[in-house]
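Hi W., the flavin-adenine dinucleotide complex you wanted:
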Amino acid sequence: MQDKLKSIGKPSPKHDDLVKVSGRLNYAEDYSMPGMLYAKVLRSKYPAAKILSINTARAEALPGVKAVLTAKDVPYNNTITKFGQSKDVGGGFEALYRVLAEDKVRFTGEAVALVAAETLAQAEEAVKLIEVDYEPLPGVYNVEDAVQPDSYKVGEEDTNIIAHFKSHKGDVEKGFSEADVIVENTYRVPFVDHTYLEPESGTAWIDDQGVLTIRVSTQVIEHFRGVAKVLGLPENRVRVIGTMLGGGFGGKEDITVESFIALLAWKTGRPVKLTYTREESFLAHSKRHRYVMHYKIGAKKDGIITAIKAEILSDSGAYPYLSPWVLMYSTVCAAGPYSIDNVDVDCKSALTNNPFGSANRGFGSPQVNFACESIISELAEKIGITPLEIREKNCIRQGNVLAGGMKMDRYVALPDVGVQAWEAINEQPKLKPADESKKVGRGMAIGMMTYGRMTFLHDTSRSHIRVELDGSVTVRCGVPDLGGGQAASLCQIVAEELGVPLSKVRIYISDTALTPLAGTTTATRQLYMSGNATLKAARVLRERLLTRAAAELNVTAAELDIADEKIFVTAVPDRSLPLKQVILFCSGEGVELFHEAQFNAPFTDVPDLSNVQGQVHPDFTFGAHAAEVAVDTETGEVEVLNIVSCFDVGRVLNPLRCEGQMEGGSIYCMGYALTEEIILEDGITLNSSFTDYVIPTALDAPHVQSITLESKAGLGPYGAKGIGEPACNSIAPAIIDAIYDAVGVRIKDLPATPEKILAALKA
Amino acid sequence: MHTNTRILAHNFVYHEPKTLDEALTLLDKHKPGIKILAGGTDVLPKMKRNHFECERLMYIKNIKELSFIDNSNGLKIGAATLLSDLEKSPEIKQNYHALHEAIKAIGAIAIRNMATIGGNICNAAPPADTVPALLIFDAQLKLVKLGGERTVPLNQFITGAEQTIIEHGELLHSIEMPELTGGLLSTFVKLGRVSVDTARINMAVAADIDGSSNTIKTARVALGAVGTKAYRCPDSEALLAGKKVDESVILAFADSLTSVCDYAIPGRYSLPYKREAVRKLAEDAFKQLLS
Ligand SMILES: Cc1cc2nc3c(=O)[nH]c(=O)nc-3n(C[C@H](O)[C@H](O)[C@H](O)COP(=O)(O)OP(=O)(O)OC[C@H]3O[C@@H](n4cnc5c(N)ncnc54)[C@H](O)[C@@H]3O)c2cc1C
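Structure:
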């Protein structure tokens, strides 16, 4: 089939590349309205404090100030977090969403009051004039303390623990007793930021029909329902228009500015804009959770793993947001992509007075992947086999059952991806640096990461296609585009199915009023979900066009094909009709030239949380990273020399975009491995700027070799799987393993800073 | 355009003098509420974070008199000369090599196209990269004000972290370095966290090495980012003078730098790391000098 495809699989520069690089694309902050007010947020300077009183009189009296709002002004200040899922999943997963701090603040940077004023300077001035009388509370900053029964309580409940999931199989004690080698370690990973280029931004106004309209940079336009709840409005009186994102990575999955600007616009009747500064963005939005992970693993001399036990503690920070969902991913992935008979996984998440954790590319997978892959590599070394061998001996294969009880019916590209990554990195002999203090090492890790949302959320997506009379095509789909080409992929599918060039397909996205709801651009789900919805709609239209052409050409529709704007008899390509002519026939005869289709993912029930078993995710993407590093034994500095990223992506729709994800993902979590961490001191973020929060620069990015395997075994269009999040999953343990190979130091506490490496070398 | 990305929250009057006279008059008239703006690569981030407020900002990059490279007698550089212009100067690369290397180590090219050498000095950040290089060349700073001028050595100009002796109404006019005698080789080394980063440690080293005996006649060493200001290291310089270049002298040099760190930042969180890592800079510096 591959050769026949015209659009799918071909490298096509993104349809929006040119507007982006020429600076013509409008991001959320670029939009303004006549008569617009500027908003500012007053944020808590304490991580834990009682709010005794708030006096807004002086702020309100300031010229130009049009509104000052506190919790008492929010019609429904306490609602429930929802993330565009089709089904309510209730307690254990859905938790408090609070617009403005009430009674007690839970983290530094929590929104306490809102201001809207004629100018930004006035809004900033007004924020300073709001007097908040706080009574500082002790707070709890360490998740290991937070789980203790007598700990300070972050919220209103009598425990800080917000989720506790377990999964077990076999008998781990028996497994350990059979093992010849046992390794036991504690791994720690820090809170990290998404560091997108574009800080949070949006503008809200009330349109001439009285509809509260919000134009915002978001991954989830379905938050219009949440905003409606906060204001007590009918859902059809709130409209969210999503802009092209300057990066999301999960950080714009939660509501950011939407409720704030909605409340201010509603109160003042004027358009209101709010854009966070970089420093504010660091304080205000979610982080990837800090985890403490205790792992124990045992194996026979021959390398066969007999048991694995993982006790995982996630620091959810001040509010739950998506923490329980993230924890569910960790529960499923904790024992890795391995077939192990005896497994015990115990995962907890608890509130602290730290910044709140939520979605971040990988969604609970990179944390446990780092721990699991690190301990597997250490085990291999103790046994005396290579990192690849231990994975070959133990990885799951098609037909095996995962630790969490899910049977892998579909093709599993393990150990293939690992073998290819490892061979590619070892193709060249190791570099011998001129500098004797530099040692070169190589490492690898494999991983599995789901694409598509958890199946108990009953995920759905919709897409609408209309064929125009001149043969061009219009697509409407409520997909937010994060810059990953989410919209362009849908166009490619339509071009393929309807036989038109990509340039003739135009797409409208991300508008709750005008585009069918497609669900969130999260969970690596859009190609899978909206791709399938679009494919379904396109195939209905294709069938209609073929049917009409069949009548004209005196054949059956099944004998026809469509390409290059022609419908032709497959066996006799010369017998053809211009597509446009068939469209005009249809139009003239009242045949519907549009279609909206819905795609449903597999649905399951909420699993038993005390023993998570069976299907929780639709499918997984399997991948591997291999890394080559040079470690300076005198300074502890690590230079990543080469990265190989190998994934079974099912099917490549556009090689440029797919490689873009694989390269970007590798560098994204290279920072996780080496430099990135939110430094907290009793709940205060000490590095809320890019001067102090260090991410790799372009000069630090090594060559990334992307190897894509195409099993065509995915659940997405044409057998595609998802790549967005999986692409970053296993690079951190690969780099850490390479550091060990170079200098014999195993870093168990990310990031692997020069200080830690040097201290370990000197120890 | 209506925009919320108002980087600078407060209002100020903006001046763009074309001549030095005009600038000095403005400085005198509006002191102390007037702030000098050169490339803005330090000023703007600080204003954005409300580190200071000022009533007036005076842009000096239009003043031709402040932008020049004169190597007729030693080296004189106008304070508002762009780092990227200095980087391109063959004379600096040849004779004041440590300065050339220090400039290349600053930011990325976009920063060097904006930033000036005077800004790097006057901002007086402990890790400022040009400072150790200028220290080993015994740089003198010419400060001018309406109706007056003075020349002060760089090591007296910077008094601490972001502290200098410059007075209101004064402007850094130029940097002067005496002509180099003998065959002084020099270099600059820097340790950052990522490729484009402020220094965790930086160091400039110059040595006059007698080729035939392979002996160091004199040496100059300056260390930055270890303590609140960069400084010359007289003990290390003395230790090197008269020694043959071999492994043992480099080791002794490294030891002396470790002691400098121990003395400069006792008890600091960064000490255990810096006292070790500085040893690598010692080695690298010599490797580069000899290459
Ligand atoms: C992304 C980034 C990376 C950076 N990387 C580095 C780095 O690697 N190494 C490094 O050392 N620095 C670095 N910097 C800091 C900065 O770029 C340099 O210090 C630069 O040389 C400052 O010059 P400027 O012309 O931009 O100064 P400005 O910001 O315009 O001014 C800095 C200060 O000097 C004063 N000033 C300027 N000129 C004069 C004058 N003629 N007389 C009196 N006062 C004056 C100003 O009032 C202000 O206080 C970086 C900055 C950024 C934003």
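The two ends of chain A are 59 Å apart (CA to CA).

W.
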